[in-house]
């Protein structure tokens, strides 16, 4: 397919696409849309930024138009699950844009905001509901939503939901859905747990795969700066002052680290903001809007919070902390060099365990990245946290769980928070991505989740004076 007109989409959808200046479909769209229109289940392997949203939204809207019925109260016809608030909001915006001539009813159900408005939005029923898994289960258990009328299920960024500990929530949700439905399943990688989940959820699916995870965009200039760990803040500030930066996205491994980097940049006279799971939803929306308009040119983010950031004009991606998941490196730098533009990806590598991470990345992308040594002569590097033989080998899609912080990359050693007097986990530290001990035995960080919810899962409320989760035996 070389044009959106070749898909035979309903006229109201075609008109909306023309208004959005959609002309030529991306590879994932060209392969997925004709299959999905027929009603067949689809497994799509594609990275963020390849046009996945249109590839599932357009055929679903077309099929909704073929069978226009009024949703029953407290139900939805289309359920889209995504890992983060930002990505969920962008998916809903896309549905509303493509369906602007359809009189589409839609709603957003995400954590981090009051639940009352979301409950009211579902009272009359909606055509399309986009949700994060934890908040969706709260709505179901609070009798604000019934899943028995779902005709279309979409799982977007399935591998990231596995990383965030959502897999058990997803299984609970799927168990409440009708067996007769169309399921569209998208993931950047296909680790065994995700493959098993897809096998349980889909019936005779078509498999579509584009943009292998090991690829990096040719228009991105990648380089490694070998630095002293203590010099990272000063070198980051120097890069932002001397490079021709339009917008810069800086990645840290932890939420605390993101805040610390922002403080250092502001002190150096460089305006910057952070986005991560501890920030309120209003803050996150305000900062993202300012980043899109260019009012803020430097955004510091964790991997989970950055999921769903789709902003054109990012000229630089800077890895302040190098990720220990090689596939995540590819996702990070893919935020730049979009729409035919050039981009720069700079990674600050402080030796020790980060050298092991770098070797894994180079093995995955099959490229030896150019390196520039900016270490102080004679400086003694800090010893690695693990012996070389203990470095995690390069992976082809497996995903681990970090029990300390959902914003730390899986397997990394994020900061351990001090426990409050009186025992138990503070309310501010509960979050949607780590509510179940079964998936995250010692979750201590607040992430993409729920604040001020009146009816949380029972197992997410630890009793006072209860032992730390990481001191209790892990349940099988």
Report Rg. Answer: 22 Å
CATH homologous superfamily (4th level) name of the largest domain = P-loop containing nucleotide triphosphate hydrolases
Number of domains in the coordinates?
3
Kindly state the mean pLDDT as a whole number?
80
* CATH second-level architecture of the largest domain: 3-Layer(aba) Sandwich
Question: How many extended strands?
Answer: 14
Main sheet overview:
7 strands, parallel
Number of helices: 15
Q: Which fold name fills CATH's third level, the topology of the largest domain?
A: Rossmann fold
Strand order of the largest sheet: 3-4-2-5-6-1-7
Kindly, what is the distance between the CA atoms of the first and last residues, rounded to a whole number of angstroms? 48 Å
Q: Could you list the spans in which at least 5 consecutive residues all have pLDDT below 50?
A: 380-476
Q: Could you state the order of secondary-structure elements as H and E?
A: HHEHEHEHEHEHHEHEEHEHEHEHEHEHE
Strand content bin: 5-15%
Relative helix content: 25-40%
Keywords: ATP-binding, Cytoplasm, Helicase, Hydrolase, Nucleotide-binding
InterPro entries: DEAD/DEAH_box_helicase_dom, DEAD/DEAH_RhlB, DEAD_box_RNA_helicase, Helicase_ATP-bd, Helicase_C-like, P-loop_NTPase, RNA-helicase_DEAD-box_CS, RNA_helicase_DEAD_Q_motif
GO biological process, one term: ribosome assembly
Protein name: DEAD-box ATP-dependent RNA helicase RhpA
